[in-house]
């Protein structure tokens, strides 16, 4: 077992740091239904951490706990060495945690550029008067943040759709714009809820490449949920496996692949 | 070939973010301004001022206000008439209580007071959405009209229950009261429209506008990227009510001169402004103007055609006019549900390619 502050090296030679976020004994119930039962795991600085499991295992609930949508009845969430109290989602966002959604949650009426600019809202502080007169701080801030956003647009190769309303884009591009919006916030942890759901092979390849590049170039810590086992095993440094709200496996992809509980959960097991 | 953007390169983000990125649009804007400020005030007469221009300008402000709330922030409101009444009664109380202070300050303060009332009635929006919110704002409409009717302090205990605007001047020109001239009324409304439209544009293209639109398009996602729904919604109510309050103040002080609250600011007014916004185009500054123009000018135009050209009796014409306007609204919404603003932008897209569409 690794020490909290100690890092480790990945197979491809990247250096992973200490614990950035830690979930301790999380239990989440909806009425009588137990969605998450006593789960603990950590996310380390700079790693790609996957959460996998069959349908209804509680993966998305876990992500919603991290991003502040659900408040667990038991357990603690620690972020950067501090215990996080119950927070509203927008407060969590201000801590530096950004996410994408399983069903795309973009702002359909706005252009791609505006969508991505919303990701930087927390960095824009100009007052009402300055904004109303478009003078001083408001204009300066707009242009400075636009520059950052353009870097992300270049990075994700969506320059040509900059001014297109998001509602008109095909599915794969929408997913990419959503990633761009989350990245624009320059998050410390990026949560991706099924970033490749419903994509064809090429789109999946593109998306995988972007996820790896984001991790590599910006050093962003990534936690992702994904169904495509091939993708998960290739992308992630460590994997948490959930089934029926419990954690049944945790470790690097090879360990998880050999874990008998995981094999049973995925392939089914004969009860005799 | 006339209308194109090829060769019109933007080299800074500042240029790219400007309001009229296409050269021809920019010229059109300057020409419109020049005509509005430099020519119309000198040729305007009483008929044109009271039938067309002054109501158009005032309703444009109200439509801008409602568009900020409904079009940009996605909060449906049927309380526009009530909020206009707040602006009107506020300016009336201020005018009569502080006769020495400039009317411009009174109008701005009336907007501020309406903004506060708007925030108060906007509080339910934190819990309820859509139709339910519409019903809650409808309650604001009826409550405010009732309040101004029942509490004599608001109309200074006048026997008729009406409020009447005393004469006030700007730079020696009377802008309210019976002595005011057509061009003075027109100019004060125009200055307010110009300033407020500019502010509306600035607010909607910046951080605050993005917060509003984010809440409108998907409130959950907005919250997850860090928009506080409380401040976003209440700021939309505040700014929107500020605009609507100013429109109400101008409608009473400059246009009507005297008003009775149930008649001037009833539920009909709420619907009228809502129609303007829907017909003009939700979430568009241009649409607010187009909708106001349509709803103000269409009846005038029809009246002129039916009574003036065809010689129909006035009462018959008045009824037919209502039917035609109603039918036009329905037809229009079927043809283009996104309003005049969308029609205009489609035209522009076609024009960009004209005359070689392939």
How would you summarize this macromolecular structure in one to three sentences?
Chain A: Keywords: ATP-binding, Nucleotide-binding, Transport. Chain A has helices at 59-66, 89-95, 112-118, 128-133, 137-155, 171-184, 201-218, 229-235, 253-258, 260-267; strands at residues 8-9, 15-16, 19-30, 33-44, 48-52, 74-79, 82-84, 97-99, 189-193, 221-225, 238-243, 246-251.
What does this structure look like?
The complex is a heterodimer of chains A (272) and B (358). Chain A has two domains: 18-96 and 187-267, P-loop containing nucleotide triphosphate hydrolases (Rossmann fold); 105-186, Rossmann fold (3-Layer(aba) Sandwich), CATH 3.40.50.300. Chain A has a six-stranded mixed beta sheet, with helices on both faces. A four-stranded antiparallel beta sheet of chain A has the order 4-3-6-7, covered by helices on one side. In chain A, strands 1-2 form a two-stranded antiparallel ribbon. Chain A starts with 7 loop residues before the first strand and ends in a 5-residue tail after the last helix. In chain A, helix 3 packs parallel to helix 6 (171-184). With 272 residues, chain A is of the alpha/beta class. Helix content of chain A is 37%, strand content 25%. Chain A has helices at residues 59-66, 89-95, 112-118, 128-133, 137-155, 171-184, 201-218, 229-235, 253-258, 260-267, and strands spanning 8-9, 15-16, 19-30, 33-44, 48-52, 74-79, 82-84, 97-99, 189-193, 221-225, 238-243, 246-251. Chain B has 358 residues and is mainly alpha-helical. Chain B has a domain at 22-267. Chain B has 15 helices and four strands. In chain B, strands 1-4 form a two-stranded antiparallel ribbon. In chain B, strand 2 and strand 3 (173-174) form a beta hairpin. In chain B, helix 3 (46-72) packs antiparallel against helix 10. The radius of gyration of chain B is 21 Å and the shape is globular.
